[in-house]
Design goal:
This protein is of the alpha/beta class. It folds into 2 domains: 125 residues, Rossmann fold (3-Layer(aba) Sandwich); 77 residues, 3-Layer(aba) Sandwich (Rossmann fold), CATH 3.40.50.300. The chain contains 8 helices and 9 strands. It has a 5-stranded mixed beta sheet, with helices on both faces. Strands 6-7-8-9 form a 4-stranded antiparallel beta sheet. Strand 4, helix 5 and strand 5 form a beta-alpha-beta unit. Helix 7 crosses helix 8. It is globular.
């Protein structure tokens, strides 16, 4: 393998958010799904359970927060992914700002109950100054949260970012049914469980709407209406933009 080939297959991205939006927990899931780890850790683990991989310092384990940026590597679809989990608390934000100078893109995690928060705004400004591409991940849909359309509108209004939805939730909280992939037209059915892998989840094609409506009822109907509104008002996705 040549140096040029190895360079082309590498991607480096940072996970950024306001404190407690779920960055480190998401990092654990990405590592688990890629096969880099076999058991997902917990940010606030009990003595008998595993701590998050990226929270390796003793103070991070004790306080349940990220104090310093951590770099982890995984292989996914023939690409080598360098994943940087950054601190969310403003006391350690200088470390995050330095990390953002060295990444190809950033994954912005937003708590679906709280929406856009103060630290999110600061980090987005740093990304904007460097033209860093942003992927927005709305977290905690299995809790009682705000309407997805409301969050989408807030991201565009507060951060000045035109959004192109790639997925859409069906329900929320106790009625959370899963996620629709708008590009593949497949719904992944949600089931709780920290050690589940991608192939453990049930996938239902949108080509059978009667089965989906029968299973998810009003939540399915509401999701379809929201998708129509969101995609109708969103720009066309442009990979080169």
């Amino acid at each position: 393998m040549t140096y040029a080939f190895e360079t082309r297959r590498r991607r480096t991205f940072a996970i950024i958010s306001h404190p407690d939006a779920g960055k480190t927990t998401l990092t654990e899931k990405l590592l688990l799904f890629s096969g880099a780890i076999q058991i997902a850790g917990s940010v606030k683990a009990r003595k008998a359970t595993r701590h998050a991989t990226s929270d390796w310092m003793e103070i991070e384990k004790q306080r349940g927060i990220s104090v310093a940026s951590s770099v982890m590597q995984m292989v996914y679809r023939d690409h080598v992914i360098n994943l940087l989990d950054t601190p969310g608390h403003k006391d350690f934000s200088e470390d995050t700002y330095r990390v953002l100078t060295a990444v190809d893109s950033a994954l912005m995690v937003i708590d679906a109950a709280n929406g856009v928060e103060s630290q999110t705004r600061r980090l987005i400004e740093v990304c904007r100054q460097r033209d860093t591409p942003i992927i927005t991940f709305i977290n905690k849909m299995d809790r009682e949260v705000r309407d997805p359309l409301d969050i989408l509108d807030e991201v565009e209004r507060e951060l000045g970012m035109p959004c192109v939805p790639m997925t859409w939730p069906v329900g929320q909280g106790k009625s959370f049914g899963g996620i629709i992939n708008l590009r593949t037209s497949i719904m992944t059915v949600f089931e709780s469980g920290s050690e589940r892998l991608p192939h453990d989840f049930e996938a239902m094609p949108l080509s059978d709407p009667d089965a989906l409506q029968k299973r998810f009822g009003n939540e399915w109907d509401t999701a379809l209406e929201s998708i129509e509104l969101a995609t109708g008002a969103s720009p066309t996705f442009d990979r080169e933009a």
